[in-house]
Amino acid sequence: MNFGAKALQVVKTVAPLLGTAIGGPFGAIAGAALSAALGTSPDDPKATETALLAATPDQLVALKKAELDFQARMKELGISEEKLAYDDAASARTREAAVKDNTPAVLAYAVTIGFFGVLGWMLAKGVPREGGDVLLVMLGALGTAWTGIVGYYFGSSVGGRKSAEALADIAKQP
To answer: To which H or E segment does residue 56 belong?
Structure first.
């Protein structure tokens, strides 16, 4: 399915796994699950997008249930969430190589310069009293974007995340 940025953000916020899958090779399955949850036709992405942007609380709950059902279906097929994320990044890399588009690289450099520029400025000058919260939000957004860029260019941190989860589980034990 092809959604606008706002609709895709709603999906990625409420049902992140479906949001990731929509842009990848399992997009048709994810789109059908999304349409079913919202009560729209899978053949009408505009209606699904409109429903997403005006979703009721009940529809959002149905969307979350659709994500859980989708996750179970993917497990039945032997497809993990890590594979979906990997396929999504691989698809973007393949597109970049085929189209010879330098936009991702330009954005990567701009975000890197912005992130470390704001971080350096804050370390040197401190957080201003007025507008400081906005600056911190901007730094957080740039940091998140930079993490995604590093994952895109240097590979996923699935192993690191699994290690962190294992350590967290050990820490919870008595």
So the answer is: none
Task: Map out the domains of the chain as residue ranges.
Answer: 5-81, 102-172
Write 95-104 long-range contacts (CB < 8 A, 24+). Answer: 104/152
| Mean pLDDT value of segment 48-60 | 85
3-class SS string, the chain: CCCCHHHHHHHHHHCHHHHHHHCCCCHHHHHHHHHHHHCCCCCCHHHHHHHHHCCCHHHHHHHHHHHHHHHHHHHHCCCCHHHHHHHHHHHHHHHHHHHCCCHHHHHHHHHHHHHHHHHHHHHHHCCCCCCHHHHHHHHHHHHHHHHHHHHHHHCCCHHHHHHHHHHHHHHHCC
User: What is the rounded CA–CA span in Å between residue 26 and residue 74?
Assistant: 9
Q: Give the count of alpha carbons within 13 A of 173, CB side only.
A: 5
Sign of CA dihedral 164, 158, 139, 4: negative
What tens digit of pLDDT does each residue of 23-33 get? 777 778 888 88
Instruction: Kindly report, residue by residue over 134-151, the tens digit of the pLDDT.
Output: 888 888 888 888 888 887
Q: How far apart are the first and last CA of the chain?
A: 47
